[in-house]
Amino acid sequence: MKKLFVAIVLAALAIGAIGSMGAPASAEENPQAAEHKRLFREGAKLWPLYCNTCHNARPGSEKAPYEWDQIMMHMRTIGNLPPQDAKAILEYLKAR
Amino acid sequence: MFSGRLMNFQTQQAWTRLGAHQGTNVALSHRWVMMPAGRIFSTFLFALGIAALSLAGPARAADSDGTDAAAMKQIRSEIRQMREERKRDREVIRSLEIKVQQLETKDSKVQAGTQHLQNTDQRLKETTLELQQTNVQVKTLQTKVDAPIAPAQFSDVFDRYLGSHTFTVTGAAGGQFIYDQQSGALDNLHHASQNSFFFDWEPMILYRPTDWILFQGVFSAGFGSTGTGTDLSTADFQIFLNDYMTVEAGLFDQPFGDWYETQSPMWVNRFVTAPLPFGVEPVVPPAELGIQLRGGMQFGQLGQDFDYTVWGGNGPNFSSNVLGAALGGPNTVASSQTNGKSIGARFRIYPLPVDSELGRLELGASTFNGKWANGNWFNSWGVDFNYFVGNLQTRGEWVESYRQMPNGLNTDHRQGWYLQVGYFLNGLNVPGFPDKLNSYIHRLEPLVRYSGVNQRGISTDDIAGATGIGLGGTQVGLVPDFGLSGSPSLFAPHAREVALALDYWIAPSIVWQNEFDIELPRAGGLFVSPGGIETPAGSVPNDHAFLSQFTIGF
Questions:
Q1: CA-CA-CA-CA torsion for B460, B462, B463, B466, nearest 10 degrees?
Q2: Cβ within 8 Å, pair A30-B129
Q3: Are B365 and B344 within 8 A, CB to CB?
Q4: Which of B78, B489, B491, B539 is most buried by a 10 A CB count?
Q5: For residue A55, which residues of chain B lie inside 8 Å, CB to CB?
Q6: B258 is in which domain, residue-wise?
Q7: Model pLDDT for residues B120-130, shown as the tens digit of each residue
């Protein structure tokens, strides 16, 4: 009875271990990377709309990332942009 | 029936299976079952022996005694053997239990190991991502770094580079040529056709000491036929208190409506000149020295936003106490002569969700109120809109103000508006034109703007004092820094203007703008001398102007 039990437990463990090493790691993404991707996509959607409201939208390639940090603070104030949208646009601008 | 049979069959099978796997236990229990039967048998033999003894007599007694003793001995030895077997079985069970325990411990160790592996995997992925991002930044920087640096030193230099570059210089520069043809004279007032070049430079400095403080300042310098001058347009701190509250304090563009704050910079304004209510005859003050609280939030789907700005400051001031006197610009707000102070509020709503693909619509309402002289109020309100979709952009504002006059004089009431429409031709392919020509056409944006002001009176002092384009006189700060002034038709109590423009966009913030203005002032209203003497305005000469400007926002 106990041997059978032990055998079953061992088999289950082996399957579990193989499963936990392989399957979930490939299916589930690193949450931080996923968040960057999400922000980038949202920024790409918002940029042509929000940044064209007052003047022609200025592309990310115009400025260095550290400059965008400052300019987006300025634009966030001047446009009273919702914080999460400003964050997404900043992500988009800095990646280009 | 069937199920009963099946059950029996299954029970049998189960047992068979159990027996096969648990030979030891089954054998054990078998022996325990056998044992009482053995005892009965031996007892029976014992009794039979005694009976035989009593029957067969003493002669046979010795024989039967020997048999019994042998049987007893065998029984005892069997019992001993069974005890030993039982003892061994117990030992086997104990050792098995120990093994199970060991296996269980090993299993939990395996699980911990797996978890550890997962964590390491996660960390590796994060590091890879960070490396990728750094790579992008490094690429940008590499173009700026002249001397090649060894990779080992590079990360150090990179950190220092980021640390020391919290300053950014932006701003704008523009050169203009203006031809203003005045078609008639207004008695006793300066008027002349202008034909001149101008240049204007407005650098802006952004300084970000931390991620929650930003300083921005714009310094302006203008050069032209009427003089050279410098000006501090705006200078303020922005302090990000939380996601929905930002404090802005200092000298700032009046956050009233859209024009002063968001449309006045040279490369932002689609025209060379300001619309009439924001030019030489402002209806609300263009700048304020004070403090604002502002923020924005999403109220529905993505793109459906609401924003607010509330502020207080030194309040409005005028070039003189007479009816129609011009409002002061940023250079004079600091010396506002009352203790009255001002308060203002602006709310804007953006009702279209991004996913609707209907473009962006902004609807706004503003008010600004304060005392301009001790005890005398200045009140104003306005509404504005801005809509753009694809290549079409249109915006407009309506503003109205009331200035309570001293000595019981009638209120100085002013109204102003503008409506402008522009359309980018970047989708237009003229058939038969070579591709090269069409590619130039794609950079064009034709625009039209209609603006007007209604005022009860105009101060002749303001007209005479206007030194022309840009500086001094009643010029309202640097919004934009130049623009037609000194022209009587612009200073008419009921000024109207149609402006046509053709912009050629070289880059999103580099533009060559050409504007043609047609002044269409209406009769009516008063000209007011510095002494307060009022004369009916009558008809005011019309004029036309052509302006060409090359400007860069950097």
A1: 160
A2: yes
A3: no
A4: B491
A5: 265, 267-268, 508-509, 553
A6: 166-553
A7: 677 766 665 66
